[in-house]
Amino acid sequence: MSTNNTLSTRSTQPEKARLGAVGENMVVSMLMQNGWDAFNANCTIKNYKSIDIVCLNSEIKETPNYPWKPVSALIQVKTSVQKNIPTGFTIEDSLERDLLKEKVMGPYVFVYVNMVNEEWKFRYFILSRSQFIELLHSAHVWYKYDWYREKEISEKSPAGIDVKWLMGEDEPETKRHKAFVNPLKGVSCEDCWENIWKD
Q1: What is the Cα–Cα distance from 21 to 165, expressed in whole angstroms?
Q2: Measured between alpha carbons, how far is 53 from 176 in angstroms, rounded to an integer?
Q3: Which end of the chain is less congested by CB atoms within 10 angstroms, N or C?
Q4: Which residues contact 29 (CB under 8 A, 6 or more apart)?
């Protein structure tokens, strides 16, 4: 490992499980560099459902009634070499805002990895819980209903979020689909670690 954002490797395509584990540990490192305490929940329970990292911020108290208790964030990490990063939800799930509100337990960190000069480069995109729900839902309502198709898509297919959406970009109208207005409103969430502590 040459820097916090690169990974030397002999392989041009690391296996999925290894890449996911590397992404989670890179995120733990970045959280700790921000001055927060963090640990990987998967160290105790393999593939802990809906949570990868528990992070504590001792500068913020949970409530005034409990001044000794720091606020915590339950973080999900998704790491991919593809620009459309799987979220762990299906398209069908993504169309149901109430279901997402029930299932999403905290902020999401998307780690996009690509090869530059024989080193893996890591980019971090951090969405608060509400940002993630809104982006996932609105993007897949657009994908389901605002495309011109002869054949319906399978709602059981995995739902992904594109890196350019994480950068706040819209999708212009084309012959294939209507325009998509990004709820991030042109604001990239890259390296926005403060979103960990927002709802």
Answers
A1: 24
A2: 39
A3: C
A4: 4
- Tell me the sheet residues that pair with 177: 147
Residue position matching structure tokens 């959280």:
31
Measured between alpha carbons, how far apart are the two ends of the chain, in Å?
33
SS3 string of the chain?
Answer: CCECCEEECCCCCCCHHHHHHHHHHHHHHHHHHCCCEEEEHHHCCCCCCCCCEEEEEEEEECCCCCCCCEEEEEEEEEEECCCEEEEEEEHHHHCCHHHHHHHCCCCEEEEEEEEECCEEEEEEEEECHHHHHHHHHHHHHHHHHCECCCCCCCCCCEEEEEHHHHCCCCECCCCCECCECCCCCCCCCECCHHHHHCC
Could you give the angle at the alpha carbon of 29 between the alpha carbons of 124 and 31, nearest 5°?
70
What band does 164 get if pLDDT is binned at 50, 70 and 90? very high
Q: Which of 189, 168, 74 is nearest to 123 (CA)?
A: 189
Distance CA 48, CA 164 (A): 28
Whether the Cβ atoms of residue 77 and residue 52 lie closer than 8 Å to each other: yes
Q: Is the pLDDT of residue 9 over 60?
A: no
* Beta carbons within 8 Å of 176's beta carbon, 6+ residues apart: 147, 148
Question: What's the predicted TM-score (pTM) here?
Answer: 0.88
Place of tokens 């029930």: 102
